[in-house]
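Researcher: First entry.
Model:
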Amino acid sequence: MAGTRNTAVAVVLAALALTATACNNNDDKSAAPAAPTTAAATSATPSAAAPATGAKPQKVSPAVFLEQVTQKTSAAKSAKVDELIKVGETTMKGKGAVSWADGLEADLTMDLSGSPMAKVMEPVTGGPNVRYLYTKDAMFMRMGGKIVQDGGPQWVRYSKADLAKASGGSTDQLQSADPVQGVRTLIASGKVTEVGQETVNGKDATHYTGVLSAADVAKATSQGMTQAQVERLKKNLDAAGVTSDQIDVWVDADQLVVKRREQAETKAGTMDITVNYSDYGTPVTASAPTDFIDLADIQKAGATS
């Protein structure tokens, strides 16, 4: 098993770096920022509240409307996701389901065939498609190929510390797939603009956009975020080398996010993440597996082999 373990060390570490670079940001799953109570933009968007009898529907700012969207999306608790992640020369596609009912949890399968690491990972994963489970405390990567055939563990567990080390301080690798956090980050920019009506996956949706800069983060407490949340957001942006982050969301008639896109320049290259959402309320099972090995144990085995 010595040769196999050495391969596992190199490949798993590469996979960890790949995943963490593509999806890092907010490190606190349970303390999502509160939505703002004041408008942060002047353009009008349809009111989500029913008007009083005989009254005309009132227009509200995009920021106020998106506050209502966070509430509706939060209440939905889960959704199916279909995401495309590009960072520098790396491209990954993911499908699965995400829950934000009590912290972020997910069951996702990533297609890494567009990544330079795909071939290197095959001896450990058994192919380009890799299953990931995100629980409240850790991330698990499904093993395959010769590792499992030789009687090795079926999963590798990455602790929060492992994820933070790979991503420069962030421990929430799932933030890119969270529609609620995406809208709240857009609101935090303080410059939300309504682009207009578009069709997304066959649904009518309203497109909103904004750019979050370092200066905006410093003022985010006025947009409903606490000082601690602002500091965490700034730390994560600084760790990724991001000075400007463009965020776009598309919202359907039910005030649910149907698409989110985030674009920024990072230390690893241009980042472009697009996530489509459907089937809100779908069940999500992401229980921690029992047959796993910790990343730290793999590193120790590789050092002594």
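Researcher: Second entry.
Model:
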Amino acid sequence: MLFLRKFTVILGALSLVAMILITCTDIVMRYIFNDPIFGSGEMIQLLLGVAIFAGMFVVTLDRGHVNVSLFEPFLLSHFRTAYRGIFDGFSLIGVVSVTGILLWKTWDLWEYPEESIVLQIPMILVVGTMAALSCLSVLGALFAILIEKRQTRALPSKEQEN
């Protein structure tokens, strides 16, 4: 998992750096030389999709999803197992749903190929990359659940401490 974590973080970081460089260069080219980069908006959109799905693996693995922590301390102290089970269940349902939709769209693009409007990039490459990264997120969710179960088993109970 450490290799996948590093790979997705680096992929996401490279996508963000590329987005920044394209945006800054496009601004300079547009306002100084009056000649913007052709297709820069589309490049940034495609890179944003890759950055989001590259980061989804790490967020799912670390349980870093956005949650409301108003009741979390109470729920964790009184209903830890049930709360974690519900949280993990909804996280897994969400990631599997997104992955299913992306895999379905990839299959559709395999049968009926499409290209991006400006740059004519085959969309199956972009959506397929997002689907593959989303599949990694499903593995991350399952691994996070497995880690939680291992850690709870490893913790000594109050009866064993006495």
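Model: Note on the second entry: The chain has a mean pLDDT of 89.
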